[in-house]
Design goal:
Layout (H helix, E strand, L loop, with lengths): L5 E9 L3 H12 L6 E7 L6 H11 L4 E5 L5 H11 L2 E6 L5 E2 L3 H10 L9 E9 L14 E4 L1 H7 L6 E6 H4 L15 H9 L3 E11 L7 H6 L7 H14 L8 H20 L13 H32 L1
Parallel strand pairs: 1-2, 1-4, 2-3, 6-9
Antiparallel strand pairs: 4-8, 5-9, 6-8, 7-9
Helix pairs in contact: 9-10, 10-11
């Protein structure tokens, strides 16, 4: 069993975000619960991120560890931070967001409410995000406290929108982001794999993060209409839905049909770019193959639309 130095490790992967990191730092200084460390994994920044962190290290009341790596990707920086963490729970916050002043205290309180004999079954404590004006981002949970898997929350209860919380560091080390896949990989692929392993999440209607949307965030890129740029990651998510999440099909059939269309859409983008799909990922279920075949015309149509959009954007730049 690991010997943890802190209850929480707050992890921030960053790249050329010196102009927004101060927001994270100030929110950590304001935390009412102080048993934490801040690990900043710098993914090869060329701005003054290092100098900024060094100045904060000299004045902060909590330990700050700065880890520099050559520029790779956020997922690699995240994995690196998980390996470096000395906290039992990991709180991953982007370099342009902030924690609610009582976020860590509330997370610790929720954990204390779970019976010690049952804690091995849990991987996460997940709450809500709010915008700076206090507006809740996305849906609230159907009940103020719910103990279910993240897959059940997504598919059975149809809860949408940004959510935030903490995850057990020891479990995260067993489910790293795939670094052999280049570029953007949706975070939900990791959370889904953990849920399928049987781990529960305690969901609570409490605000833990103040969410600041930015045009260059990875989550926003993943939702971008330019799906071709992130075709491999988005294909993996579509594949995971139609192949690995079939037990939840009956709760949201339209979601699975849409995923089947995206499977074809992004497959064609990969073929167009001569990108080989990862080995070991093929449709093994008859129902999966039927879903994709049924939605093939729509997926192909979306691909053609993307190509026209990309061509039009290129002509505009000229």
């Amino acid at each position: 069993m690991a010997c943890w130095r802190h209850l929480f490790t707050v992890l921030t992967p960053t790249y050329n975000r010196a102009h927004t990191l101060e927001r994270v730092y100030h929110s950590l200084r304001e935390q009412s619960f102080q048993d934490f460390e801040w690990v900043v994994v710098d993914d090869g920044s060329t701005d003054h991120t290092r100098d900024l962190i060094q100045a904060w290290q000299a004045e902060a009341s909590f330990p700050i560890r700065y880890v520099w790596q050559t520029n790779q990707h956020k997922k690699t920086a995240f994995n690196n931070g998980v390996r470096q963490a000395r906290g039992e729970w990991l709180v991953a916050i982007d370099s342009d967001d902030e924690l609610d002043p009582n976020a860590l205290y509330q997370m610790a309180s929720v954990w204390d409410q779970i019976s010690p004999a049952q804690r091995h079954r849990y991987v996460a404590i997940t709450g809500l995000c709010a915008r700076p004006d206090g507006q809740i981002v996305g849906d609230m949970y159907p009940q103020d406290v719910m103990d279910i898997t993240s897959l059940d929350m997504t598919f059975r209860h149809h809860v949408r929108g940004e959510k935030f919380g903490c995850l057990r560091t020891d479990v995260l080390r067993q489910f790293p982001f795939p670094e052999d896949i280049p570029g953007f990989v949706p975070e939900s692929l990791v959370w889904r794999a953990i849920a399928r392993a049987g781990y529960l999440t305690r969901f609570v209607n409490q605000v833990f993060r103040v969410y600041h949307d930015s045009a260059d965030s990875l989550s926003r890129q993943g939702r971008s209409s330019d799906g071709a740029r992130h075709a491999l990651g988005l294909w993996l998510l579509a594949y995971d839905t139609v192949e690995c999440c079939l037990p939840w099909l009956r709760y949201q059939p339209m979601t699975f049909l849409a995923a089947a269309a995206r499977y074809t859409r992004f497959s064609l983008h990969l073929r167009r770019r001569h990108v080989t799909r990862p080995t070991g990922r093929r449709l093994t279920h008859l129902l999966s193959r039927c879903l994709v075949a049924c939605m093939w015309p729509i997926g192909a149509g979306l691909f053609v639309r993307d190509c026209f959009s990309i061509g039009a954007a290129g002509r505009t730049m000229l």
